[in-house]
Write a structure and sequence with these properties.
There is one protein chain. By secondary structure, this protein is α/β, with parallel strands linked by helices. The chain has a 7-stranded parallel sheet with strand order 3-2-1-4-5-6-7, with helices on both faces. Strands 15-14-13-16-17-18-19 form a 7-stranded parallel sheet, with helices on both faces.
Length: 738
Amino acid sequence: MKRIAFFQDNLDVGGIQKSIMNLLKNFDYEDYQVDLYLSDRKSFWDVDFPEQLTIKYLPHIPRIYSFMPFDTARKFVHLDFRGCEEYDLAIDFNSYQFSCALGAITVPAKHRVMWIHNNVSVKLQNEWKYRVLWENFKGKFKYYDEFVGVSEGVIQPFKECSGVYDKKFSVIQNVIDTSEIYSKAAEKTDFSVDRSKMNFVAVGRLCHQKGYDIMLNDFCEASKYRDDLHLYIIGDGDKRLSLEYMRDSLGLTDKVTFLGQKPNPFVYMDKMDAFVSTSRYEGQPLNIMEARALGLPLYCTKNLEIYSKGLVGREDIVSALAGAEKEEKHRDDLHEYNMEIIGRIKALAEQRTDEAPAETKKRVSIIALHLGMGGVEKAIVSMANLFAERYDVYLYSVYKMPGSPAFPLDNRVRLQYLLYDTPNREEWKAAAGRLAVVRFLRESFRSVKILIGKRLAVISAVKSVKDGVLICTRHEDNLCLSRYGNDGVLKIAQLHHDHNFKHKYIRGFRHGYRNIDYLAMLTPRLTEEARQLMQGYNSHTRAVWIPNFLEHFPENVDTGDRDKTVLAAGRLTPVKRFDLLIGQFAHMHEREPEWKLRILGAGEDQAKLEKLINKLGAGGYIELAGRKSGPEVEAEMRRAAVFAMSSSSEGFPFVLMEAQSCGLPILAYDVRVGPGAVVHDGEDGFLVPEGERQLYEDKLCELMEAPELREQMAEKALTALREFSKENVAVKWYGVME
C-alpha cells in the first residue's frame, strides 16, 4: 500500500482549504494510506472526512518564521518524525506557509512535491506581504522533486519568478465534490429570486484579485440596454464597503445584492440563471467548476481561460450580459474530470525508474533590462530563441513590464524576472509637474529603491552563473559582469546603441571591461571604434561584429501594386524625430497630394504629435496609427510603398530590416550609425546627409514619382537582406561561444 502525506495549514475559509477537502473526501483509500498534517486547528468547515484518513497536527510554529529566510528559519525549528515510516509521496499543499514546507521536506519520503495555487507574478506585483513571504520562502524550492500547478495559468508565472526550470512541472486541477454540491443545493431556504429577471450570481472573496469593481462597471453598462438584470454576490472581504459604495454610486442599489459569506452558497447558486466572473487572475477558480456542476451558464472574461481547462471566455462581457437569455440548466457531475485528477495524484506516488537522464547542454545566460516593446528587446528575444536551438538558455529580465515578453519566446528558454517593481518615471514626473510634495517625495524614494534593487538584482544574477556563457546587454550591466562574473564563465558584453564617444563608455571599454572576454557590437564601424578605444588599455577584451538578424522573412512578397503610402514606425519619442518627418511631409503635400503618411507606434510624444498634425491641418493625410502587433506591422509594410526614418540616433534598426523584408525601399537620414549598416545608398534606398532636409524631401518625391525605381530597390533589398539571416548571424555567435 502506497503512503501519501499532505501538509496543509488549516481548514479555514479559502480556495486552497476547499480544494484539499474535496480531494481527500473523494480519494482512493483502498490502495493508499493517506495522512493529513495540519499546523493549525482553525476550521470554518464542518468536514466529514472518510474514517480511513488520518489527521495529525504539527507542533505550533509561530508565524514569525514565515518572515525569515527559509534556510535560516530551519535552523531554529525542528520537527520530530522519528519512528515515522517512509512515505512514498510528501505534498506541500499550501505552497507558502513555512510550517507546511518544513513538514514536507523533513518527513521521511521518497518524493516531495509542492502545489502551486496562484499566479505568483500578479500576487508579487499587487501584494506587499506576499513579496516579503516570497523573498523568504523561495529558498525552499530546491528541496522539492516536482511541482504541480492547478492550471496552465499558474505554472509559467511561477517559473518566470522563481527561475526553477530544472524540475518537473505538471498540471493537476482541483477535485470538485459534486455530491456535496447537490446535497447542499437541495437544502431548504427562504431565499428566492424574482423569476421575471435575469439573475446572475458571483461567488468569492471581496478582494482586488476577484475584480468585482470590473464586474460592477460591466453590469452598469449592460443595465443601460435592459432593465431586468440582477446580480447577487456571495462572499465577504476587505473590499465590501468600497464595493457597496461603488454599487450605490453607479445607481445599481436595486440591481446588485450583496449576500455576504455563506457556509452553503450552493442553495443560492442553484436558484440563479447564470454565473459571472471577471477576476483579474486566478489559480484555478473552483467557483467556475461548481457553477458548471450546477448547470449554470458561464459568463466569464477571456483572461480566465488559462486558469480553467475547457472554459470558453467572453470576448465582450458587457454585450454578453446585455444579450443573456434564460437557458435550461444541465448539471454535470464531473465524474471523469475528478477521476483523472485522482489518477494523476496517485501517479505521483509511483516509483520513477524509467526516466532517462537529461541531456547535458552548454548553458547560455542572458541578462536584459526588460522584454517590453522595442527594437533592443526584440533583438534579445531573437537571440535567446536562436540559442535555444543549441543550448540550455536562461533569460533574466530585471523588470517585468506590462505585456512582457512583447515578442514570441521559445518555450525552451528559461525566463526569470528579477524584480517585481517597474520604473516609476512617469509617476515621478507627474508628481513633480503638479507640485505634489508628499507624492513627489514618495515617488523619489521609490525611484531610488528601484534603482538600488536593479543593481543588486543584476549583481546577484551575474554571481549565480557558475558555468557556460553569460551575455549582458547594457553598459551598466557589462560593468557588473566584468567585476562580479565568475571564473570559468565566458563573459560577453553587448551594446545595442551608438556609444558616440561618450566618456563613460570610453572609460568602461578601457578600464571597466578588463574581465570581459568579448565585446559584441552591432556594426563594423562601432566594432572598429571599440578596438581603437581599447588599444593600449585593455588587451583582454576582443571586439567582434555580430549584427541583429531577422527570425522571419515574409513569403511571396509582391514589390509592385502598392498603396500611395509612406510608412514610418517606432516608439513616439524625441530621438525618432517624428515631428520633423510630419513637418516635412506636410511641407511637400502640395507636390504629392495623393500620398499619405502613416506612423505606427505609441509613446510619450503622442499628444505632442497629434497637436502638431492638427496645427498643420494635416489630419487628412497624416495618421498616427498606434501600436501594432507583429503580423499587423507586416501587413502594413506589405501595403505601403516607401519606408521613411527620421531618427537622430540608432543602434542597429530592426525596423529597417523588417521594412526591406516586405519589399520597401528606405529613406533615412545618414546619422552616425544605424541606417548605413542596413541601407546601401542608391541601391535599396537613399541615405540623406544629416541636416539636408530639402534633399530628404526631394528624394522622397523621387521615390513617390518612380514606381519602377521603388520596385527595383525593393528587389535589391530582398537580396541584400540575406546577410542578416538567422543562419548567417548564428555562425558569428557560434564562432565566439565555441
